[in-house]
Amino acid sequence: MIKNKDAQIIVIGAGTAGLTAASELQKMGKSVLVLEARDRLGGRIFSQKIAGKVYDLGASWIHGIENNPIWSIVQQNQIETAVFNYNESIYYHDSGQRFNPIQRNIFEKSLDYLLTQFKTINQTEHYSHALEALETWLNGTKFQEFIKSQFQLGQAEQLKLHKMLLDFFKGLAEDPCASDLEHLSAEFWKNEGFYAGDEVVFPQGYIQIVEALSKDITVLTNKVVQRIDYTKELIQIFTEKGECFTASQIVITVPLGVLKKQQIQFIPSLPQQKKQVIQKLGYGVFNKLFVHFDQAFWQSSEGNLVNSINIHNGQRWLNFLDMSRIYQQPILLFLFGGVSATWTEKLSSHEIWQQIEPSLKLIFNDIPEPIQMFKTEWGTDRFAEGSFSYQAIGQTADDIEILKEPILGKLFFAGEHLAQFGAGTVHGAYTSGLDTVKLML
Ligand SMILES: Cc1cc2nc3c(=O)[nH]c(=O)nc-3n(C[C@H](O)[C@H](O)[C@H](O)COP(=O)(O)OP(=O)(O)OC[C@H]3O[C@@H](n4cnc5c(N)ncnc54)[C@H](O)[C@@H]3O)c2cc1C
């Protein structure tokens, strides 16, 4: 039975942004209460124990440890991590042949060239669509000259390279953007917001970061906020069970997907400009499929001891990660973003496996039946309504500022989608929590 339903400040949502804000406010001597819809803390950080191992079904990576505030939390709390860099990867053609060193060099140099174009894109170029920009560069004379200056390629080889590069960027739009290239802003890679340095994962779960952030914070779980009435001096917050909490100020950290679905009713309604921005910002689906085998068949051929394997099946790239080193078990992780992620939610794990196995068969003989599979379904998760935000076509930094703008000095907003650096990440959610507290002072 909750006795006290009042606090100076109520934070809605016990994910990274909410817990960070609550912890900072409490350190300043404020009385803070966090209301969380789920029966657990962490939101889109979700570490689950399955058959004795901890799997991260939400965030897994610290994207670059140099100057990353999440890395500081790791160090302060002596949390175990393991380096797992994506770029340790190998590539295969649809013929099943692995790229030889020359082919790999051509492919990687071309990728770097195009990524540099994206990262240095300037306003005079007037590209807003990532796909449009990519097609223009691929077909432009600058790229042709770059290729000519570096390599000797016949016309057929050049066409194949174009197709593989275009498909690779389609894959990149899925992961890390949870989008499709058609919907992504050309400025995405410029504003990606990853830190430099190694990428690391947590063998015992990302949840340890949540545990560190939530020390001494009062969080009430199973409190699904349904209505926020800020007409009077004290804000009233109603849950779907009819409970009413009151506070002078509130911090709303529910995911952008929840705001898009208008799951929470605001009285009075949110300003029109904010409502437009909520619909405009990109927010996508990104899902994981863990496949557990009794042996690491992919490591049998020499040199396959890498983190990431990419197979071009002629139509698209299939990318998967070898997680055996992290889980001490033969486990592959397949990642799906955008349309593919929505597709995976409609199928069983077995049906997905049936669809992706032919691409693996291009390379590996005698693939054994998986002994266990499990997948995530963030798109249909009621308290996430998707996975994370991305920069949609036409979206600018000003849009984020509009959404962040407090209302009447009473309603404040935080969450990964409001980070100017690192939107879509845990470090983005963390810095957004801190930034919002500064607005409250
Ligand atoms: C599959 C997947 C993989 C990812 N991989 C990475 C990665 O490797 N590295 C990385 O940095 N980031 C990754 N991310 C993104 C990262 O997890 C998020 O950016 C970050 O955790 C978001 O934190 P947040 O506090 O903004 O939101 P959340 O963590 O979603 O917190 C919001 C909270 O609000 C609660 N809530 C929702 N509705 C209500 C309501 N009506 N009433 C009360 N509470 C409510 C939710 O339950 C949730 O706990 C991944 C995300 C997903 C889904």
Summary tags:
single chain; 441 residues; globular; 8-stranded mixed β-sheet; 6-stranded mixed β-sheet; FAD/NAD(P)-binding domain; alpha/beta; binds flavin-adenine dinucleotide
Commentary on this structure:
The chain has 441 residues and is an alpha/beta fold. Among the domains are: 6-45 and 200-283 and 393-440, 3-Layer(bba) Sandwich (FAD/NAD(P)-binding domain); 101-183, no CATH class. The chain is built from 14 helices and 20 strands. The strands form five sheets. Strands 1, 2, 8, 9, 10, 11, 12 and 20 form an eight-stranded mixed β-sheet that branches. Strands 6-15-16-17-14-18 form a six-stranded mixed β-sheet, sandwiched between helices. The protein is globular. The structure holds flavin-adenine dinucleotide.
CATH structural architecture of one domain: 3-Layer(bba) Sandwich
Strand element count:
20
Largest sheet: 8 strands, mixed
Individual helix count? 14
Could you name the CATH homologous superfamily of one domain?
Answer: FAD/NAD(P)-binding domain
- Highest-level CATH class of one domain: Alpha Beta
Strand content: 15-25%
Ends apart, CA distance between termini? 32 Å
Structural class by secondary-structure content: alpha/beta
CATH topology of one domain: FAD/NAD(P)-binding domain
Cofactors and ligands: flavin-adenine dinucleotide
Low-confidence stretches: none
In brief, what are we looking at here?
This protein has 441 residues and is of the alpha/beta class. It contains 14 helices and 20 strands. It starts with 5 loop residues before the first strand and ends with a helix.
